[in-house]
# Entry
Amino acid sequence: MRRKESIIYVNFAPYDNTGRILDFLLESFNLVILLSFDFHKLNNKHSSNYLKIFLNGKEIDKKKFFKLPTPEALLFISLPFIALIIAIQSVWNIVKLSFKYGKFDIYLSVNAFTAWIGNILRDLNVVDKTIFWVWDYYPPGYPDWRIRLARWAYWRFDKMNTISSNRTIFLNNKLVELRQQIGVLAKSRKYLVVPIGTNPTKTRVNRKNIIGHFGVLKRFQGLDLLFDNLDSLSDKIPNLKVEIIGSGPDEKYFRQRAKKFPMVKFYGYIKEDNLIDNIIRHWNVGLAAYIPDTSSPAYWTDPAKIKAYISQGLPVITTSITPFSVEIKKSGAGVIVDYFDPQEFVDGVFTILQSQKKFRNKAYELSKKYYYKDMYPRLFYFR
# Structure
């Protein structure tokens, strides 16, 4: 990787700079073309369907993309049309830009569908090499047949582009092993794993009692565990506060649940990463209590919210669903609880609050292991 190289980076809001990946690209590449699309229903005042051009780390141009108006009731039916619009806008705009900037060196995406678009552009000789950084696996056995069908379609793209991309890299070994077990990848080969990075920041203990949650608001993220036990916690913890950063398909549901709890504050969707970090570092406990559901992608992915927590030295309460819970337990950076045992959750909160300094130090030490500037160069070492 050389500073003079160009890169096209495609992702979905609100994950554009997850683990500071966009920051790294702006620091490392002379020309960065960012394409960002909606993934979840976010209460976001700013359009998240756009193309941005960065030169030497500075934004020099922005173009808004057409966004198909889709009422929630028609979202599933409209998915093929949304995908088609994304593909057409991506190919059209990147081909146009190639006349101005020449052939692009690298195309990077973390999504199987947009990785397919990148391989089309490579075959058109618009980009030189494609990188598919595999972030997810969506188990097929989802109860709702519509979601099950969408996942089946996504898996077709995943299998195809895992093989056809110039470089395929995974967030964790579990994603590799799954594909080896079903014959998509050869068991005899080793595959590169590059996890989501951190931006370690040494922070001081906050004497307030704040439980925080950061991320897309979806029920499988386990935020119900907090609301189910908030009466018990507030009775025992003086001046307890709850702060929630993010938006998503279940935001209205959680705001409704919070109406009886005056100590709960919703920040909504925040785009600025430094502002998010500044809020998180004042929390005492970071919640990532994923529900143990076999159809949940949390079983497979690397949890961005936990990486954001430990980056600010914030201790974590999580469940054993995410593979990263092993690291949390081993390092002492938080507490692993049984989602279906309310007392474990309450006790976990007290355990962290009573030993704040110890847990914060452990979280900070763990975050240094995944510093993004050490992790991400490996994405671009072509052999």
